[in-house]
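User: Sequence in, structure out. Go.
Assistant: Echoing your sequence, followed by the structure tokens.
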Amino acid sequence: MSNKPRSSLLPYLVLLTGVVVASSAAIMVRLLQAEPIGMPSVAIAAGRLGLAALILLPIGLVRARHEVWALPWGDRIRGIVSGMFLAVHFASWIASLEYTSVASSVALVSTNPLWVALASAIWLRERPGMPTLVGIALTIGGSLLIAISDSDGSSGAQANIGNMLALVGAVTVSGYFLIGRELQRRVSTLTYIWIVYTSAALTLLGAAWISGATVQLVLPAGSSLPPLTPVLLVLALAVGPQLLGHTAFNWSLRHLSATFIAVALLGEPIGSALLALALFGEGFEELQLAGFVLLLIGIAVAAFTERGNQH
């Protein structure tokens, strides 16, 4: 009896750890994009997923190859499509950081609860109750306040480009979450992420090759930094936000609803914005602070509802 409450908390603790780790992604992307490194966004995305896939390769070959070979072709294709959604998500979101603030980019890419809730109701038949809908409305409202605050600045036109790219990232990551929720009812998390991360890496490497950015994966433009600095930053992206962060999200999908996970991930904008304030001096407008408050309230409402549904 004493172990049951503790085990029921595990998915929430894993999800919280993933959100905290993922909050550092925007900061590392900004460092790679800025001079003197100046790495193209598609090269950053390809490097992040490529290294993650390479690290997973020996683990997958040892522990998951038999399950992969036994999968029906339909499930393999679903995994590949999920990886393509993930590739577009990273390509568009990372590019958005070239145009808009960290706070707005991460907040808007995290509006996926809206798309997940709509699709879950139709596809997975996970109809959210009224408290969850209230939580979603609060989190969406908070994200919009942050975006409006950013677009009122002097670089509003540039910010709007970044905001649109972030929204593309939000829609595509929703497809990734929904396929993962459905497919992981039949396959292990390791098998799923091996297929997804590998297909996403191949998609992004192809895009980098077509755009001529592959050379930046090996020879970044920056020359005043130690040669390993860009490599270490991309490796940190692969190991931290990707392998630890996104794998924590995928594991949590086996235990929590896709809608709740999408809402909980809205904690990422807050962590990213605080790091951007400390490292880049990106301050907060009053409207942004109001948005962060709404985000936190929305997450708390959704978390309370999800806990109640599991008992």
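User: And one key feature?
Assistant: DSSP finds 15 helices and no strands in the chain.
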